[in-house]
Every structure is written in structure tokens, then in C-alpha cells.
Amino acid sequence: MDTIIIRGGKPLVGTVEASGAKNAALPLLAAAILADGPVTYRRVPHLRDISTMMTLLAYQGAHVHFDDQSRLHIDTRPADKAEAPYELVKTMRASALVLGPLLARYGHARVSLPGGCAIGARPIDMHLKGLEAMGADIEVEQGDVVARATRGLKGAHIVFDQVTVTGTENLMMAATIAEGETILDNAAREPEVVNLAESLRALGADIEGEGTNRIIIRGVNGIHEGEIEVIPDRIETATYLAAGIITRGDVTVTHAEPGHLEAFIARIRDAGVKVEIGEHSIRCRCDDPLVGVNIHTMPHPGFPTDLQAQFMALMTLARGTSIIRETIFENRFMHVQELVRMGADIKLDGNTAIVNGVERLSGAPVMATDLRASASLVLAGLAAAGETRISRVYHIDRGYERIEEKMQKLGADIERHSGDETWMKGVMVNG
Ligand code: EPZ
């Protein structure tokens, strides 16, 4: 397993370019199942999760390839398998995003139920309930969702019990070629949902209301070939800005979308960060220690849960106390104990973390547990005195394209050692 080694204490200065958004690209790739021609994608990030989705589509019989201008081409016309096997789904929960499109296209689908994951149970009951409302029969057999809609899917009025991003996306895709009108109430408003709706419309879908909590989809006979652009990754963007902030540097992220990060920008401004907004760029400078501010994670446009761990890393070195409440996932504080190992002062009380700022952090061997927790450990390592060694960095590779290269470009003393097992023996014994 790879290890990332960071020698902290250097201010990060410079400019990096945001990649395409992982959480936009995944549903966009699944949408190719609905198209009756080849779909071309620009700005798909090179990440493990994207490779997994490409493998899944190829397994179903689609032709999938990157061209020499790093555009991704997917043609599902030759595909004939309405399945997503456990071997692939267990490595990526978002594989469940093929369920709605497969069922809409073939009238049946067999998709392995995603297991839980480090940050919570993360069931897909709302996805399944919505498909049943559209006329599907859903059974669970040997860990697989077996869905049938022999008479095709019919439009329905679906009200989500709570906001679900991939639930909204799955049902939006299923409704695209269902018969009649589907209304999704309490729909997710995330920019990735908007990217999907606008892209489906460009391929011939009849959708309105994306970005609000009511999305209306009128079924069409099919959607056609076309070209799609993935939006910038707002979570990656904020992570690099946080790297500049925590090291008291001066970082600009280009090819970004500031409008997707309003809640994050508001809170770092409250904490004392100087933020300059360009049309497609964000620059953060921080000369003095931050001031502790409180956050609670919410569905978009609230403060994103995917930035909670990174923001906590910032607050460990802020003046005063910060109260951080995680309202989306039941177990998204695994980074806390690792940050404490580095000298942070954090107490947990249920879904609330009380962070008392300290003068400095010290480098230490730590372990990545999930994608965004890993990012917070990188941030802490960049600010800490001494060396930080982060094991299990495969978590990071799921969501950050070439993280050490981009951080090196900003002046970080960071490197990746592959398979550096020797020193880990000690840590793993306690692990
Ligand atoms: C998406 O996950 C993102 N992943 C997550 O990003 C993100 O943290 C999350 O939305 C919230 O913004 C992708 O888009 C691929 P949810 P998703 O359905 O759709 C519960 C990252 O780091 N729920 O909005 O799976 C669920 O357990 C990842 O990039 C049900 O109970 O999240 C959670 O508590 C992590 N039943 C809450 O709702 C359901 O059927 C929100 O989940 C669906 C969800």
C-alpha cells in the first residue's frame, strides 16, 4: 500500500488547476446507458472511482476509451448486460447509479447492494422506493437488488424523506425515458445534480427545476449522442485553497466555479481569510492565525459534508474554539483521532466535534480511513512541524487526481512511497 510522506511547515504559494468533479462525472458516465449513440465527455478526472465506473460499463458491453485529447468516449449501443456485480460495486458505492438507467433501458436490472462504508451505513432505500413508485418490482436476492419493470417505468410523484444526491440522480435518469411525468420533491440541489440535468437535456431529455428542490422530468422515447463537459470539482478546489490557508500561504485555484463554494467561502472569510474571487478562479491568503468559527454540514447550498474534515483541519490551528456539527453522515469523524495524534485538541460529543485551537501540530504516522478524512490529514501534515506519514492513501486516490504533484507545484515537501511496508508493521500491529 502506498504511503504519502510530508515534511510540513512550508507556506504553499502558487496556482493549481481544478480537475473535473468526481461526483459529477460518475452519474454522467452512468447516463450513457440511456443514450442511443456515442457520448463524448470533456474534463473527466483520472481517478480510481472513474476507472471503476468505466470498467463497469465495459463489463456491460459498452465501448469505453479515452482519446489522445483526454476526452472520454462511451458507446453503449453494443451493451446488453443489465448487471453490476459485487466485485465492482464493493469498491465503489456510486455503482448504484447504474440501477435507474439499466432498469429504464432494459426493463430489468441486477445490481449488487452497496455495503456500508467507513462514514456510515449509506443505504439506498430511497432509490429503491422511488423506482417502486415508478412501477418497478424490487427484490433483494443474495445481496443483489433484482429489479423488474416488464411494462416499463411510469412517471410518479416522489417525495424524498431526506435529501439524497445519488438518489435524486438515479431517479432523474430513470425518469428520463419513463412514460409520463415524474416529479422529484425534496430533490438534491447540488451542482453535480444540475450538471447531470443540463447534460441529459443536451442529449434530448425534457427536464426542468434542477437546482431547486422540485425537479420535473417528462419521459421521452430516447436520448441521443452528444458531447458533455464535467463541471470543476468544488471539493478538490476547496481542499487546495485550504492547503494555502493552513500553511499561511497564497494559493489560487483556476478553472474553478466560485458559485459552487459560497458556503465554504463565507465561513473561511468569517475565520479571517482574505478571499479574491475571479470569474473562474479563487485566491486565498492568510497572514494571521485563523479565528475559530462554527459550522454544521447541510445539503447544498449549505456547508458541504465533503469539506467538514478539511475545515476541521483548519480549525485545529485557529484561535479559540470551533463547534463542528456533522448532520449528513453518522460516522464522519474518523479523522479526529488521527488529528489528535498530531497534537490537535478535539473532543467528540455525538455528531458534534469541539475543536480548541492549538499553537502547532506535530508530524506523526497516521492512517487514512476515508477519502475526505485523508485530505484533512494531508492538510494537517502540510502545517505540522516535522514528518507526517499517511498510510492507506488509496483512499485519497479515489477523489484527488495526482495530489502530491499538485501540492509539490505549490511548494509542498511531499512525496509518495509505494508499498513501503517496513515501517508500517509497527503501526499495523496496533491498527
Ligand atoms: C453523495 O453521496 C456524494 N457521492 C458524497 O460524496 C457526499 O458526501 C454525499 O452525496 C452528500 O453530499 C457521490 O455523489 C458519488 P446521499 P450519496 O444519498 O448520494 C442517507 C465523497 O467524499 N440515505 O446524499 O451516497 C445517507 O446514508 C462522497 O466524494 C439514506 O438513508 O449521499 C446519508 O446519511 C462521500 N437512504 C444521507 O442520506 C438512501 O436511499 C445523504 O446521503 C440514500 C441516502
List bound small molecules: ligand EPZ
Low-confidence stretches: 420-431
Number of helical elements: 15
Largest sheet: 4 strands, mixed
Shape: globular
CATH topology of the largest domain: UDP-n-acetylglucosamine1-carboxyvinyl-transferase, Chain
The secondary-structure class comes to: alpha/beta
Give the neighbour order of strands across the main sheet: 22-23-1-24
**Share in helix:** 25-40%
Over all CA atoms, what is the radius of gyration? 22 Å
Assigned CATH superfamily of the largest domain: Enolpyruvate transferase domain
Mean pLDDT: 94
Taken as a percent bin, the fraction of beta residues is: 15-25%
Explain what this protein looks like in three dimensions:
With 431 residues, this protein is α/β, with parallel strands linked by helices. The protein has two domains: 3-19 and 232-420, Enolpyruvate transferase domain (UDP-n-acetylglucosamine1-carboxyvinyl-transferase, Chain), CATH 3.65.10.10; 22-229, Enolpyruvate transferase domain (UDP-n-acetylglucosamine1-carboxyvinyl-transferase, Chain, Alpha-beta prism), CATH 3.65.10.10. Helices cover 31% and strands 24% of the residues. The chain is built from 15 helices and 24 strands. It has helices spanning 22-30, 48-59, 86-89, 99-106, 125-133, 165-176, 191-202, 234-246, 262-270, 308-315, 334-341, 371-383, 394-397, 403-409, 424-430, and strands at 3-7, 13-17, 39-42, 63-66, 72-75, 83-84, 108-112, 137-141, 144-148, 157-159, 181-185, 206-208, 214-218, 226-229, 250-254, 274-277, 282-285, 295-296, 321-325, 345-349, 352-356, 365-367, 387-391, 413-417. A four-stranded mixed β-sheet has the order 22-23-1-24. The protein has a four-stranded mixed β-sheet with strand order 2-15-17-16. Strand 20 (345-349) and strand 21 (352-356) form a beta hairpin. Helix 1 runs parallel beside helix 2, helix 1 runs parallel beside helix 7 and helix 10 runs parallel beside helix 12 (371-383). The relative contact order is 0.16. The model is unreliable at 420-431 (pLDDT under 50). The structure holds ligand EPZ. Ligand EPZ binds next to helix 1, helix 5, helix 6 and helix 12.
